[in-house]
Amino acid sequence: MAYCMIRGKKLFYEEFGDGRPLVLLPGDGVSSRMFEPMKDLYQKGRRLILVDYLDTGRSDRRDELPSNPWQQAAQEVIALLEERAYGPVDLLGTSGGALVALEVALRRPDLVKKVIADSFEGECPLESVVQALRQEREQQKQDPEAGDFLSFCHGEDWQQVMDRNTQAILAHAQSGEGFFSQSLEQ
Question: What is the DSSP string of 140-171?
């Protein structure tokens, strides 16, 4: 297991294979373990890098929630890319991971060659997505299969991880701010 220190906390990451770096960024509420079934497919001819943001997976937990979890995660990914000196990387993010990938590219285009942004809602939270999130998260707590998967992703504290992630998303939506530090048009 490898860690990068971010503001006194351990950020977990794993590397597999050789070649041009491809960083896989998980969505909200999950961890890099969501990519386990696809790992072999993605690492052919690539150096595959999987990341658990702070407060998820095998990374340390913080005492306070960030006001914009995607911008915070992007800063963590940037710190990792700088520390490991990968050179320009390809980023593949899904859902919240797509928001992180795009924010990394906006802040540090010198670190990014390509971005694959899958399944995100745009530059601002959509009320319908926010409202559906509350119900979805409560259903996940009651579903044994979802609980098993989330426990696999985060460990024994998966319910607290999910509750904190939900709180962060809802607080961000209430703030009225967009997801990104600058316009995607740039």
Answer: HHH-HHHHHHHHHHH-TTHHHHHHHHHHHHHH
Q: Assign 81 to helix, strand or coil.
A: helix
Nearest to 90 by CA among 186, 141, 23: 23
d(CA 31, CA 27) in angstroms, rounded, equals: 7
User: What is the Cα–Cα distance from 68 to 15, expressed in whole angstroms?
Assistant: 27
Contact 1, 11 (CB under 8 A): no
14: left (phi over 0), alpha (psi -120 to 50) or beta: beta
pLDDT tens-digit series, residues 136-166: 999 999 999 999 999 999 999 999 999 999 9
Asked if residues 78 and 105 have their Cβ atoms less than 8 Å apart, the reply is no
Alpha helices in the chain (DSSP H): 39-42, 69-84, 96-107, 127-142, 144-154, 158-175
Q: Is residue 70 predicted with pLDDT exceeding 80?
A: yes
Task: State which amino acid sits at residue 109.
Answer: P
Is residue 21 within 8 A of residue 49, CB to CB? The reply is yes
For residue 185, the model assigns a pLDDT of 84
Count Cα neighbours of 146 within 13 Å in the Cβ-side half-sphere: 11
Q: What is the mean pLDDT of the chain?
A: 95
pTM greater than 0.90: yes
Mean pLDDT confidence for 76-98: 97
